[in-house]
Amino acid sequence: MCQWCMKHGAGGKWYLNARNYSNELAEDMNLEAYLTEQWMNFETVYIRKIMGFSSIGLGYKLKMPIIGRLLRWQAENMIHSESPNRNPVRADGHFGQVIPVEEAKIILSSLAAEPIIQNYCMCRMMQRGVKDVCCINFGALSGVIEKLPRFIPKDTRVRLGREEAVAAVEEQNRKGRVATVWFQPVPYVNAICSCEVPQCGGLRLRNDFGLNTVYKAEYVADTNPDLCQGCKACVAQCQFSAIRYSPTLKRVLVDQAKCFGCGLCRDACRFGALKLVPREEVPGLIGRY
Q1: Of 39, 5, 55, which is closest to residue 186 (Cα–Cα)?
Q2: How many helices (H) and strands (E) does the chain have?
């Protein structure tokens, strides 16, 4: 399991540890004030400076021999910060992990602190100018977001019961969107997003710049060659270029090193030819998130 599971998972996955959702933890961390400042200034996250360097041309700067290493080091420290003095405007300590839909349903049905709300996706608003209701937030963050009108969807139910929240994440899964769960800030968990590449800011930073804003899931996809019919439905669903169709074999092949373990390919397969297996059971992928 990933390092955050070891540190904040109480012997299991960090996002299935009930303490990380508790109101007591939110109060101990004074999260209402932290999250209010973060979300009031959320638009600036996309233009924040790292070591005085702007985010414009970040990909090029990260490739520079010395400056690139320093920028990556500083960016990773900001993303994973657990310092009591971390900066909310920079969204320090805010990162997540891909999860399959069944684990998203576990979180929403039994772990997420109430109230549970759905709101406009900040990534889509900032990158595409589109107001799409595909984020589910809960606990201390819900009360903060409800006070910020620009995130509240119109003509749509905002507060959700647990069954409604589960139905909402299932609907996003049917749309082919990847479920991710988020520390905000670590170790408090208060969001499940359903997004896609390249609209998701976290996935884009991971894919384009190699920053660990979103970790791969605890699973990878695996195929049963006897069941695969070569229909290519899974290829169309994969956002990480981890599946390809082999005309020679007349079936699909999974590049498990590229797989994020979201399960969308499995859910798209009508023949049961794909399944998710624990990442830690695959030689060569142990500890690679």
Answers
A1: 5
A2: 12, 11
Report the first-to-last Cα separation within the chain, whole angstroms.
Answer: 9
Indicate whether 50 belongs to any domain: yes
Judge whether 289 lies within some domain: no
> What is the extent of the structural domain holding 244?
219-281
Answer left, alpha or beta for residue 287, where phi above 0 means left and psi between -120 and 50 means alpha.
left
H helix or E strand, kind and range, residue 205: helix 201-209
Peptide bond into 187 cis (omega under 30): yes
The pair of three-digit structure tokens given for residue 238, joined into one six-digit string:
């994969």
Domain termination residue (choose one: 185, 215, 245): 215
Which residues have a Cβ under 8 Å from the Cβ of 288 and sit 6 or more positions away? 216, 257, 279
User: Are 201 and 114 within 8 A, CB to CB?
Assistant: no
pLDDT one-digit tens code per residue, 238-288: 999 999 999 999 999 999 999 999 999 999 999 999 999 999 999 999 989
Do residues 236 and 160 share a domain? no
Is 286 among the domain residues?
no
Which value, to the nearest 10 degrees, does the dihedral of the CA atoms of residues 45, 51, 52, 57 take? -70
Q: What is the mean pLDDT of residues 230-239?
A: 95
Q: How far apart are CA 169 and CA 148, in angstroms?
A: 23
Q: Where are the beta strands (DSSP E) in 101-229?
A: 116-120, 133-138, 159-160, 178-183, 189-195, 214-215, 219-223
Block residue for tokens 């924040």: 48
Encoded amino acid at 102, one letter: E
Give yes or no for a contact between 96 and 213, defined as CB atoms under 8 angstroms apart.
yes
pLDDT tens-digit readout, 79-133: 999 999 999 988 899 999 999 999 999 999 999 999 999 999 988 888 788 899 9
Say which residue the tokens 């520390």 belong to: 183
Query: The tokens 């804003």 sit on which residue?
Result: 213
